[in-house]
Automatic annotation (TrEMBL), chains A, B:
Residues 146-279 form the Acyl-CoA thioesterase-like C-terminal domain. Residues 35-120 form the Acyl-CoA thioesterase-like N-terminal HotDog domain. Pfam families: 4HBT_3, 4HBT_3C. It comes from the Bacteria. It comes from Comamonas serinivorans. InterPro entries: ACOT8-like_C, Acyl-CoA_hotdog, HotDog_dom_sf, TesB_ACOT8-like_N. This is Acyl-CoA thioesterase.
Amino acid sequence: MTATSHPLDEAVVLTLSQGPDPQGGTVIWQGQTHPGYANMVGPYGGITAAQAVQSVLQHPQLLGVPVALTINYAAALAYGPFTIHTRPVRTNRSTQHWTIEFVQNDDAGQPQTVITGTAMTAVRRDTYSSVDHPLPPVPSASTLATRRVKNAVEWLNRYDQRLVDGDIHTAWDGSEHDSQSTVWMSDEPPRPLDFVGLTGLADVFFPRIWRRRALRVPAGTVSMTVYYHADAAKLAATGSAHILGRARMHAAFNGYCDQSAVLWAPDGEVLATTHQLVYYKE
Amino acid sequence: MTATSHPLDEAVVLTLSQGPDPQGGTVIWQGQTHPGYANMVGPYGGITAAQAVQSVLQHPQLLGVPVALTINYAAALAYGPFTIHTRPVRTNRSTQHWTIEFVQNDDAGQPQTVITGTAMTAVRRDTYSSVDHPLPPVPSASTLATRRVKNAVEWLNRYDQRLVDGDIHTAWDGSEHDSQSTVWMSDEPPRPLDFVGLTGLADVFFPRIWRRRALRVPAGTVSMTVYYHADAAKLAATGSAHILGRARMHAAFNGYCDQSAVLWAPDGEVLATTHQLVYYKE
């Protein structure tokens, strides 16, 4: 690590602790939370997902590139060290399926699972591709101001967000609104896009329940899925440009609401679609 | 099993084989594919997902009701018996996180993982609920004819589908179209809705890539996520009425495309949102 390394690259440093296990191929990685991505309680969920995908990307038996990732936030990750248990469960000719578990000791020193997840990687072949959900007509990122949040949690400083529509409410009066937000976003400082960076960006949106009903209730992601519609070359072509994200919810029911988002490169290519289930109180 | 039992209820019969393991709580269930839900190769993916959720619902340590499920189709499930390894990885005060694995012997008699998955269950509390994606204006199910498919794979006969828009193409000429389909759907014969039935219905849509581009290329779901926006009472209130599903894709890229769908009760309540990643060839 040097003084000039990007905080995201620091955050996803994983050290080989054990493996690959000769039977199942499990690798145990040692990781740690990064103060630059601190949220209110524990780390920003997007960085945890980025660490999960990194644990797959750095596995010596990796086949292909990420196409799907699901991360479940089973318990609050505490600041400090953790291990990631990353297992290639099934390897076919051109696809590979993974299980992922983050383990952290509890107050009694007992190891506990705090994150569960699955991932799929695949060797992509050049074939038919198309976008059926075009980039909406929006002003370009360069014409919009960076969103400044007063007393922001630390991770918000790691992203440059330029709101197109659906900003967070200023009057918390319980009034109802549509849940959509559209935002140009990039790492801050800028960083060339890759699978780790894209995964972090997939969780940038503030809780949809705060848009839907103007009440700042406790809320947190309990499960997140990312579908990747890009290979390394397509991500590299985006470079450190802002990408456009549009997120909305469909339903809130008795404590849980969903979120769906599309992430576009500025040229209109869809880079990822991503979905969440979010807990909310009240 | 009696002669009058519903094929879905037959398909999700799981027999306790082992457990719960006193350490981790893993239960090993014995299940089997059902000829009534046969697809072209192996069983219909929705029934596999229904069996996965059933393995959680019948676990003696279950807390709450399903709120999220992710199933990865790591390899083709062969017709015949399999085991499901269902583990409550983390139990909190009102939430529980699960891992799920389907295991089947390969030709050499070696056990292989064919399905991986995670689920989350939760005790719901009566609180704020709302729909931010209303049921679209469509004719009621009773005014539409049941869709008949010639030479249909067997599982299609287990669902009554009444197409509103976005039917499968009749001319496979490679022309491009929007990927949306809207359909009223129910089990056939009718069956009161529950979590198992809703999970099966989440996968009913034909591959979006066949709508997007009128070419009937090989395609199959590799990962499916269901977010449940209902409790048992809300599902029971829907009874055996048709529910409305609307599905679309956002992007296809080099062999994989996504699918997102919303499932509504006829009264406009959102019952589930569901997402897939689908492999396609050519």
